[in-house]
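User: Hi! Is it possible to get a structure for several chains at once, not just one? Here's what I have:
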Amino acid sequence: MLVAAVVAAMTSFVWRRNKSLGTGVVTAATLLAAAAAFAQDDLVRRGEYLTAAGGCISCHTMDVAGAVPLAGGRKLETPFGTFISPNITPDKATGIGDWSEEDFLRALWEGESPDGEVYFPAFPYTAYTGASREDLLAIKAYLFSLSPVSQSNLEHDLSWYVSTRLAASAWQMLNFEPGRFEPDAAQSDEWNRGAYLVRHLGHCGECHTPRSSTGVLQADREMAGSVLGEEKIPNITPHPDAGIGRWSKSDIEYFLDAGMLPDGDFAGSSMGDVIDDNTSRLSREDRLAIAAYLMSLPAMADD
Amino acid sequence: MPRKSIGAILVVAISTTLSIYAFAETTAEDAAQYRTNVMTSLRGHTGAASMIVRGQVEDGGHLVAHARGLASGASELARLFPAGSNVGESEALPAIWEKPAEFAAAIDKLTNATSVFLAAAESGDKEAIAAAFRDVGGSCRGCHDQFRVAQE
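Assistant: Yes, the chains can be modeled jointly so their relative placement is included. Here is the combined structure:
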């Protein structure tokens, strides 16, 4: 973003001087335009990486072979009913093609639509609120580089007591505090990167941290395991028996890369989507950072 | 007919009878246990191979052996699931018998992935090995996701 802005500023500077300086500078301007295109490419590539790190694809893509990524329509079963994810391709009529950068930030940071409607926390804006402006705008640039897909959003199918946006507003008012991630200066860069990925972009706690009866994550039992529908989500704190305390850092990194448990087995589960769409697409350094963060959590026995 | 060939025919006849006999003796419990044992051997090979692939253990020519073990295990998968063998502690889901085409596709996927992995291991090309091994794991994971009881 910054790079693009700087290049844009420089381009306009050269353009002004262009009149007096003649053709040599036209070439320079062309070069700079090319540089701006490169910067845009770079931004889009970064955005693609961060979209993977944000796990957006798993939720915003239908669960059928050949579904177009990010066009929505995925059914997400929760104790409150079935949510159906919206289309986030840049289609103007059925997707988010009309959205400004501020609209996008507001959705991911505040959990509010451009019309001021409050989103349900099935969209984990509660985690993305910690993501940086730069990263979210890179994600937007990537989404907007995709072909628009015309696919209308479907209504969620929710229990009566949560079925209105009013319920979402009330929930948000009671349970949500927006705010960016603050690096902990006492910790290493690796730890801070891991914390950012696990708590915010990767929203690992959405599955691995237990919830209260109103669906709020229990901060004092971060990553201590949970139950979602019929699926039991394991404890991934460093507890030697209840959690993954016996796993080496390399075991964790490799699990996030290839899905292999340290004993050579491969569990199939919703973690499979996380591995395919998110963690296997990250750099080894980022996976190691995630491992470092998980290994630093307080070891927690099962309840 | 010379004596020798009569003898040979008898041997074949007897051993055929014996093998049919032995097969008839395979109980559902035996089939489930045999399956568990073969799956456990696959896990042994993937666990060991992964440590060589990740460079934690010297290859010393043994990656190829693990790749062969995986390929031969894969070639046996189709016969591991006789109908009615999801007994006792079995984690086999009914979908195995309800969706035979999908299940066969999951077996094919592992068969292909293990033969690509074997070729890569024989070539010694590190990058090809890592990619092929990831596909082997993806095939184990894909089938377990659809056809094995979810793990904790």
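The first strand of chain A starts at residue 75 and ends at 78. Residues 57-180 of chain A form one domain.

User: Great, thank you!
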